[in-house]
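Sample entry as discussed:
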Amino acid sequence: MEENKIALVTGASKGIGAAIALTLARDGFDIWLNYRSDHAAAAAVAARVEALGRSCKLLSFDVADSAAVKNALTPLLDNDSPHVLVNNAGFAKDTLMVWMGEQEWKDVLSVHLDGFFLVTKLVLVGMLKKRAGRIINIASTSGESGVPGQVNYSAAKAGLIGATKSLAAETAKRKILVNAVSPGFIATEMIEGLPMERILPMIPMGRVGKAEEVAEVVAFLCSDRASYITGQVISVNGGAYM
């Protein structure tokens, strides 16, 4: 790998995002680590990235806030262009649709879809100029199969899958590869409090996944070994949805 390739990972202060940042740092990428508000967690990930011998730039902004995205990224993009963008920022507000407030609908769609649009649009310009880049969008089994109580989250993740395929078609000739990685039940904060005795029987492998297992697929897609893969959704779910 050439010197100083940069990977921008959104929502990377914990969970899957943090695992992705650390795995890409291991593979030789300098990290731009976006997070919204957990400064202590982000600083801890940055220290681990630097312990791997790579630099880590902490970028605190809300991916759904257009002005904040521009203010944080534009000055950096004037000098550098990430080779990799991982759109991982996201959250869930689960409730049955009959009880779902308009704000719960809009907030979840905004972070996943507006966040994807705002960050990717800025970073894409440099990738197009260099005729090189990898964009990985973190989807979810919810966006493939539908999950009761997650109409907003499923809609957002399904939208992200559609956007992945369209952008892959638009950018393939410029050697920018765009894929989605779709985790199932992964041992992070997002599944704390869920009824494991009901969930585990739905997973053929009989266990939840580890964040590192998702991160390794992302790392593969960012590597030279994945040079002919674009527009794909790669599921990491233990067989829970096939």
Remarks:
- Residues 63 and 154 are 19 Å apart (CA to CA).
- The beta strands are 6-9, 30-35, 56-60, 84-87, 133-138, 176-183, 233-236.
- The chain has a mean pLDDT of 95.
